[in-house]
Amino acid sequence: MKVLVVGGGGREHALAWCLAASPLVDRLWCAPGNAGIAADADCVDIAADDVDGLVSFAVGQAADLVVVGPEAPLVAGLVDRLSDAGIPAFGPSAAAARLEGSKSFMKDLCRRHDIPTADYRVFTEGEIEAARAYVRATGAPIVVKADGLAAGKGVVVADTVAVALEALDAALLEGRFGAAGRTVVVEAFLAGPEISLFALADGRTVLPFASARDYKRVGDGDAGPNTGGMGAVSPHPLMTDALLETAMAEIIRPTIAGMAADGHPFRGVLYAGLVLTGDGLKVLEFNTRFGDPETQAVLVRLRSDLLPVLLAASEQALHTVDLRWRDEAAVTVVMAADGYPGSVTRGSPIAGLAGAAGQDTVVFHAATRQAGAGIVADGGRVLAVTGTGADVAAARTAAYARVDAIDWPQGFCRRDIAAGI
Ligand code: GLY
Predict the structure, then answer these.
(1) How many CB atoms lie within 10 A of CB 230?
(2) For residue 202, pLDDT beyond 70
(3) What residue ranges line ligand 1, CB within 6 angstroms?
(4) How far is 52 from 61, CA to CA, in rounded Å?
(5) 126 SS3 class
(6) CB of 1 closer than 8 Å to CB of 63
(7) Which residues lie closer than 8 Å to 256 by C-beta, 6 or more apart?
(8) Of 285, 292, 296, 332, which is best to mutate to test ligand 1, by the most ligand atoms within 8 angstroms of its C-beta?
(9) Residue 139, Cβ density class (10 Å: 0-12 exposed, 13-18 middle, ≥19 buried)
(10) How far, in Å, is the centroid of ligand 1 from the Cα of 227?
(11) Gap between the Cα atoms of 364 and 14, Å rounded
């Protein structure tokens, strides 16, 4: 089969690495890919948000499946366009991707279908006074979210009312997030451990896939600003069979059923960001694609061939899938360029990537480029070094041993990913 993966980060490297191992895959492309992905797939110079270019390539190559990594092309309707062109794709339609692309859509769906989430109100540009009054009446901590996609920067967790009021002004008056922030969701802060849960759906059938813990802050001990994710451990150490069944019964299945009942059947991977509050599990956010870097820690544990699983999700055949996992833990440590999540300098050389034979590790590339005979950094999050082991401690030891063998003076990582578990 001929498969195109869309994207060029660590998540897409993990997807390409997994698909390259499938005996069913004859040709594998990744658009645009990166220097590490090039070892597993043929990289094609088409940007992940170039919907016309991607459709034209997939049609020209008669691709049997397109696997979409990032959210932007999903929200822009890539899967709809591929479907119109007769190309099967893994990922939701634009209408279903609103679960990630519009926070107010997601919250209203939860309200309509009794899915537990934080109390909230939605405000638009002309409603700044009402929004301010709501914030003052509710008090802090409180969360202000830009409604649309804002490159991970649209959420302010405000410890004080003053900070929340500033966030309202930034979004509704100053247009800091452009169109994405002309509507905001103001919601109660949910206290408790966060759990990333991935489930696959084909519109009707839903299958739990895997859980993971993401480390969002840039510094050890959760210090410093939020990032796209500095590391992950899978399975999530708090995820028991009973908690998984609660999440499926109270959140995942009602969401998939609600989307179908509302006329937007969801196909692809539903990534639920959950919080285990004192009042039970609540959904903090939905994403409509695999998480990054959680996917890197999830896919190294998958024993099943990934291709038939993704095909089944795109063909309403998930009921035929029996997922198999390795009985192991996995830990991913992200290596980022100095300055991340602020501005970074591209082009610093990275050596020591090869690793020793027999290591239980994989170095997924998130932002690298070939420069002559060498590899250089080409973005903020650059590598996702992943180790597996019989338990979390062994996986962690493997991951950090591999990190320590990489020679990249301009890079850094957190040293406490999966510590103390
Ligand atoms: N790790 C967070 C995300 O993928 O959105």
Answers:
(1) 30
(2) yes
(3) 214, 229, 287, 291-292, 294
(4) 14
(5) helix
(6) no
(7) 199, 201, 203, 204, 206, 266, 270
(8) 292
(9) exposed
(10) 9
(11) 6
Query: How far is ligand 1, taken at its centre, from the CA of residue 256, in Å?
Result: 20
CA of 400 to the centre of ligand 1 (A): 21
CB 106 within 8 A of CB 266: no
3-state helix, strand, coil in the chain (%, to 5): 35, 30, 35
CA atoms of 270 and 99, how far apart (whole Å): 9
**Which residues in 165-177 are b (16+ Cβ under 10 Å) and which e?**
bebbebbbeeebb
> What span, in angstroms and rounded, lies between the C-alpha atoms of 385 and 387?
7
Report the C-alpha gap between 291 and 273 in whole angstroms: 10
Residue 40 CA to residue 25 CA, distance in Å, equals: 11
Atom 4 (ligand 1): residue with closest C-alpha? 291
Q: Which residues, in sequence order, are bridge partners of residue 232?
A: 214, 332
Name the helix (H) or strand (E) containing 396. Answer: helix 392-404
367-410 pLDDT, tens digit each: 999 999 999 999 999 999 999 999 999 999 999 999 999 999 99
pLDDT digits (tens, 9 = 90+) for 333-347: 999 999 999 999 999
Cα separation, 243 vs 255, whole angstroms: 17
Which domains are delineated in the chain? 2-91 (3.40.50.20), 119-188 (3.30.1490.20), 192-320 (3.30.470.20), 329-412 (3.90.600.10)
pTM for this prediction: 0.96
285's enclosing H/E stretch is strand 280-287
Q: Are the C-beta atoms of residues 394 and 233 closer than 8 Å to each other? A: no
